Fold these 3 entries.
Entry 1:
Amino acid sequence: MLAVLASPYVLGLVVATVATLALGVAAYRHRDRPASRPFGALCILLAAWAATTCVGLLVESLDTRLFLERMHWVYAAIVPVFWLWFAFEYSGYGPELTPRRFALLVAPTVVFVVVLFVDPGTLVWSSYEPVEVGGLYLIDHNLGPATLALSLYLFAVTFAGAAVIVRFGLTAGHLYRDQTVALLVGVATPILVSLFSMVDVTPLRGLNVTPYALAVSAVAFGNAMFRYDFLENAPATRRFGQHVVTKSLRDGVLVVDDRNRVVECNPVAGRILDVDPDDALGAEIHALVDEDTLVDGTFDQNAHLWNTNGTRRYAIEQSPVVDQHDHEVGRVFVFRDVTETERREERLAVLNRVLRHNLRNDMNVVTGRARELEARLDGEDAATATEIADVADELVELSHKARTVETIMANDTAETRSLSALVGDLVDSMTHEHPEVAFDVNVPDVTVARSTVVYAVVSNLVENAVEHGSPCSRRDAGNAVEHGRTDDDGTCSVRIDGHVDGNVVELTIADDGPGIPDVELAALRNGEESALEHGSGLGLWIVAWGIERLHGSVSITVDDGTTVTLELPIAGTTRDPDADDGRWRGDDGTL
């Protein structure tokens, strides 16, 4: 008896039983993870299959051996069904295997098991013969038509499960490749080995070698579980996450294949297109929307779509869906509700136009009248009229800056101009307005793109240096003379230097004034203004927004004056993607 127990045929089944049972216990510990329940059930069935076969080798009673042989076929009939269930759950297609479909899938197995135990006759085994070899008890039988038919069906079910996993492995990239290969090895080995049993190519007559292959399956499954943590990293989690993201998006998402048939439609897209998402699946796009909305049989990327009651507007964005070979296999359409955005832009455009127009015209009247009063009056009355006129001039200038902001934000053209010519024109204009300021200019003759935006940015920085930084500004002129903060000839200076550094030109504007107030820098540092912390105008905002449009950068140093350094991309080049595009930096490197 001990020799029989030590037989490799018995020991092989014991190893297969213990290994698959251990995997089932491990799967139970991960029962809250996707696919863990069908995998655990699959492992328990495999363990029971190996154990039943092992016991059958040791039992002399023919009736018991026939019963165990029937149980062998019960496990053989059930395992492929659980494998397919696991494959669906593992790949994230579990919801597709509805109870009705599962019942249809298991129906042939149930019918076979009933026939197997009630009246096998010649349908299950056309004949059988007890065999004893070296103390091992076997049953050598010829398969009947029902068993052959079921075997073909079970092979198809097994291959279907493998196909589901292979399909996912090919489309999921490298993330799940190794564990997918391990699972396929685990299921392919028993399939191949079972073919030898069916054609009676086995070491012992009547020996079914399929359960021995379960030891290999256990090693492969264990490798997937413990080396690649496949239950912790089951792709179903990824698929469910994608599903949740798609369903929970506030935007409509419609996915079509290369024939413009809908393969995915989230609830928002269903509401937009006035169709049930499930009914939309398989339908062609032209069946869901008017032909006027389509260009070449699909949505125009720049089109706006009105919904059925005409109260909402949607911008449509599309992007291709490619396979692992970079072949386009479909497209994704995203419907973004732009109704409120466009309404807000319309309101802002109207308010901007009306306020700028009325402000400029009315303030020009105020300025003219105030200057008339200034000329007619004396003393404090004349000073009051002058103050009114100055404030009105500042408001008119503010309206001009608002127009500049609008120009910057709307500028999408790539007009180019020489930086030296641009700065030269700017300095000529400033010199005419401020003859008391001396400009020291040394700018390279390089071409910059979006010259309109560049001019707006540089002019506001130079204006800031002249009006607010220079000791010769109107508000600081008296103190400048008193404290000797002028050049030898009685003028004040603003320095504009530039040099080329790779694909950018660095432009520096420096003055010798008191520096930009902290409140101005604080508002820009936070990216917004508050009721207690805001700048006095739009100048630095024009600089910030302009630099953002130019994909440049700006740094500010305040120390016995203000030094502003711009990095502007040279026309025809691109900046380093690691550069701090549009970032503001202070004298400590941050702002």
Entry 2:
Amino acid sequence: MAKRSSLSIRIVEGKNLPAKDITGSSDPYCIVKVDNEPIIRTATVWKTLSPFWGEEYQVHLLPTFHTVAFYVLDEDALSRDDVIGKVCLSRDTLASHPKGFCGWAHLTEVDPDEEVQGEIHLRLEVLPGPPAPRLRCSVLEARDLAPKDRNGTSDPFVRVRYNGRTQETSIVKKSCYPRWNETFEFELEEGVSGALCVEAWDWDLVSRNDFLGKVVFNVPRLGAAPLEEGWFRLQPDQAKHQQPEGNLGSLQLEVRLRDETVLPSYCYQPLVRLLCQEVTLGTQGPGQLIPLIEELTSTECRQDVATNLLKLFLGQGLAKDFLDLLFQLELARTSEANTLFRSNSLASKSMESFLKVAGMRYLHGVLGPIIDRVFEDKKYVELDPSKVEVKDVGCSGLHRPTTEAEVLEQSAHTLRGHLGALLSALSRSVRACPAVVRATFRQLFLRVRERFPSAQHENVPFIAVTSFLCLRFFSPAIMAPKLFHLRERHADARTSRTLLLLAKAVQNVGNMDTLASRAKEAWMEPLQPTVRQGVAQLKDFITKLVDIGEKEELDLQRTLSLQAPPVKEGPLFIHRTKGKGPLMSSSFKKLHFSLTTEALSCAKTPSSKKSALIKLASVRAAEKVEEKSFGSSHVMQVIYSDDVGRPQTAYLQCKCVNELNQWLSALRKVIMNNPSLLGSYHPGVFRGDKWSCCHQRDRTDLGCDKTRSRVTLQEWNDPLDHDLEAQLLYRHLQGLEAELWQRHRSQNVGTETDPGEASRDALAQLLQVLGNLREAHGSSHTGPLPVEPTRLLALQT
């Protein structure tokens, strides 16, 4: 049983931002921090005061987090980025919006004195007299304090105040993880209630001290518990004047907090078995729970439910059967071929999720080189005469202004080249397409041909495949490559227009060049020869794609499983130490790294032979490193045990905050079940004779900060978490339980049902399973689960 929290974040857009550049504009981007820890950086949108990002993230984190903050900054090439403002949402605020916080929020000023973070370790005791009782406050240590100095650290000390008296600790130089172990006593006067205030400060020699946060205690309440010790989160000074809202612009956000208690696997087995039985029986089954779930699920949460169901059945090896059932249900209620799979049905949403989970690596292989070429060309491309801007093109080779006709011809030539390259790459990719994707498309093709067998509908099976492959997968990825991880940055306006026109052309090919799609935008006519040729190529490709037998499917799956594709790969810089003693220097060497479920390997180039650097079974933690440690940002450390059990650390540098968090997330996921994970670590390095973070001289010290092994970003290639998907599905069905009961009663009105038959009825079984899960969740808050595995399993027999 585990408690898990996740944040679904969508950063939509900003408006009315202040101009930070001399051109009267800004280059805004967002940084997302959870408890002051940067976890996400959006792409920069250039030269605008109303940026659109449209970026979505799913973050898994500890249930104990306090706030999530969105900082808007202006990127500067030659100086430090300007902070425009921030939106801060507390955990309590998010918890008060069960459907999520959605809307515009005003940016507020970022006051450095209010940017506090970290915790302080205190021990508080009330000592009896005579002559008078005393309050003893022991200031032990602090961790993760805000760095206030240019060197990336602080010089912290603590000021303790009570009843007009103030005492201070010593100053610990250059540390955000100081240890004091100093004790102060105050005499408690009778009748004086007062408060004990513990403040952390950064000492500065030539300027005023910087506030690092405080903790306030009610002294009379301390008297009830003579001894109190623990880590206390530092709070900002709420007494400071707040700046008026609205003059820094606004940010449109969608943020949803989801807290889940995930029960042991055996608790979900009856639900999983019942749903698998429904899928295995297909349309011949008596229960028809899947269509009932679709009917009762609202449009706004259908995508989430589709993803949960898809991942659950993917984990059971039934994804193809589940999708086939949905195909049959959709075909049964569709009379017009041209409306097939055009709605936001459970089939459409599930297929979208399936392609992202099972086909994203394939998409990258086919589409990646074409997208890179479009970004590198930076050509002005336009086919719509009403939108041509000749001044944006420049002069021709004869040093005269380019005419509109020349712009249109050059644009058509460029787009024909990109479209031809994409169709050729797609035609050659049959064997590269994952076996489960090919088998699913084969089922779809056969079902549609069976439903619309006449000659006039000969293209319908092909259009059914392309409606997902082209219209819902390739085209969206072409229009927004950043959202499909094909590029790190959004396209500029010129490249974005090229991508949009290319996506339209791909859609026309996917629609098999129908008259309806051609008539919408007549100015796309110059691409028609390539589109017509593409239709023939695409039909040939689909014919080969769906020509897969069971034996070939098994062979392909076996080949793919033997290949063990990497969880993550890419270039990183590994730390190298030169020399020995106090004059040693550090550098980072660039290598290509590959992370699988077995090891972290590296090589000089992507095509070079890889050598295992670290076996994942020996990894104990993957964490960030303080910037001051190497004078470089975005450095992570992988702590592991060598072959003889000695602790070792590999330091790897990433190029940006997103890459850093993605690598940390990937590493944490694959080591999540390692038995010897660390609970604490040193965010610094051991240099000379002490740790750079806390200045401790014991190299084997347990660590001055807590590890964050459960903080991860959700990615399309994540390992399947069967229990979590089952829990999310249970939570959704719990919300439908009243309607399910109503449906169950209406089915049995006026009939006398044999108790044995009722127990075998799928809807009755589902309601019984939901009741048992509700009981198990109730028991999880009060003590051991009373429901035994044998009893739960017996529900299905």
Entry 3:
Amino acid sequence: MTAYPPLFRLSSIAGWLLTGTALAGPALAQQASTTLETISVEADRARREGAQPSASAPLPGAANAVGVGSETSGGGGGPTGVVGYTARGSAAATKTNTPILETPASVSVVTREQLNDRNVQSLNDAIAYTPGVSSNVFGYDPRFDAFFIRGFSVTNVGVYRDGLRQPSAPFAIPKVEPYGLDALTILRGPAAGLYGLGAPGGIVDVTSKRPTSVPFGEVWLQRGKYDRYQGAFDLGGPIEQTDGQLSYRLTGLFRQSGSFLPGGLDDRAVIAPAITWRPSADTSLTVLGEYLDSTTPGTASTYSNFADPRFQKTNLFGGDPAFQDFTTRQYRIGYAFEHRFSPDIVFRQNFRYQSVYADLKYTQIDTISPDLQSAARSNGRITDTLDTISLDNQLETRFTTGPVAHTLIGGIDYTNSRFTERGGFLVVPSLQIGGLIRPNYGAQFIPTPDYIGGGRQRIEQLGTYVQDQARIGSLILTLTGRHDQVSQFTQDYTATTPDSLIGDRAFSYRVGANYLLTDFIVPYASYATTFAPQLGFDRAGAPFKPTTGEQFEGGIKTQVPGTNVFLNMAVFDIVQANVLRPDPVNPIGFQAAIGEVRSTGAELELTANLGRGINVLASYSHVDIRTTKNPGAPETVGIPLSGIPANTFTAFANYAFQPDSRLFGLSLGGGIRYAGTSPANDVPGSFRNSTVTLFDAVAAYDFAKVDPRLTGMRLQVNVNNLFDRAYFNCQAGACYRGQPRQVYASLIDRW
């Protein structure tokens, strides 16, 4: 029986859209079986038995029965061996396609199927079920993808795309649209040995959707609360009459939406083309592009006054619809090139140019009158522009020296970022709040301030790195070293401070060891360092010392034999030195790089595909992060950092009924997210954030059960915060509301 054409099938439910009940969201899984070069456990068994495996040995278990998938490669190509929610290999931790079992670090992969089942709407949503990650520190704040790993902020220095770092400025922070991703990889712990500047907590590397060798297409239509309308499409396949040398992918999304914040928009438009040229089996060039336009509220916090117990946290929104739009426009163009000189010698080059323009308009509440009838306010407008060029060259070779098998990678990378900022600020009319009951949002004209200050900055980074993964029997040693040279030029447009040109050099490294007790039980240990320059000057006019960090980590990785069930356990101890703190001599006017923070903890993660249609995630994390040195404020020593829950637990499962069931076509799933208590401010005696437990749910139905001609059509409903739990999270004295219950109903057609 012939399937209905896509347009006919969509038109048959167009009435749902007209009545406000039809729907869309990200796509159901699109991975496929892709053979990539890898170091595998099975290959290691062959070594022990005397055989010499080829560098192009396929990753065992790489087949993915879900559908179409991108053709990827190492050095930014994403995970391998994907089955449901599980992945066997990832290039993020080593820049080679190494099995996660054999990586001397804690690594998690969020696959496309997981993104689809949970219908994630942001990067924060995507990593919400990952151990060690605090993604809800700032509650509901659609302006940025702001999160912490092992207690350290990753927002500005730890987000990578296709293996290249995405530098960011105070407000020109590149946005990540999850519908445009094949997968995400979270690498916990310092990554400076390969990547250079970064946070000691870890990095997140997102993998862009890439062209496929199999033709496919899909359309998503979505409807949600707060007048949310969203449409998305994803098309790809080989280009005709090119003998398979050219293939393409075109991904797009358009959204118009409000939010529970008064007058707050969450609009977005994205288009992402990609094309791959493969003139031979040994050479490939993939060009990746994107344009994104986003509008969100200029602020997301509620009013808090920690000097008055009555107002420690309130529902009083700090912004105003009359002046609060935050607009981001960004575009990028780049490529991933790979050439295989021989089975054991591969060259890769990854390049990207990215431009981000951010226009922030915000209003804030400064004080509330004693009679609770009005609130004094100010506003500001800040425009940031950030242009970045990133280039990474890698040469990977494989060889043996006696009984030792080596995978050696060396590289040179370069990043050049140019940043400009202008800003202005005003005192604006007070908000009439009527005793915190009926604030008159949007009732008054709020003027736009003139620019009164600004500046520009240029940062250049040149790094050289080398890594050797050496195998001696069951022992795998990973030795990584990197040298970075960074220069920063800063100019103040107001000429109140002189221009400055400073430079830093640093050597970072990682030493790791994995031991294969069996093919599926692998303990590991590692030591790694990190560093990052810090902007500004101390009381003497000298530039701040770079912040440095080190980590000890150990753990056990397990795969249940003959299954796609993975269990990872890790413990860690991270120290970050030269953290900026108030200067002991002049704490009001200056800072000094004299602080120190220590984070210790443990993580447990289960990822499993238990059979056709059964996927399970579960994780537990304990993070204890405290100030250990602060001469300017010794009373803060020993106090946990605010907003970071000490204990978190997450679990998510999804089940698709199989053809032998009467409920075939139906899928049901749900999740739980628990976050423990944490201090609300970084001062002694601060009140604490409450524990929060949130529930999510998903139900979907594939119409192929009703009529085979409707194969590929799917209705899916996702509910986040199912029981509408009202909660706050406060960090450094600022409080943010969590998102109330949100319902997304999606209609998907795939062919």
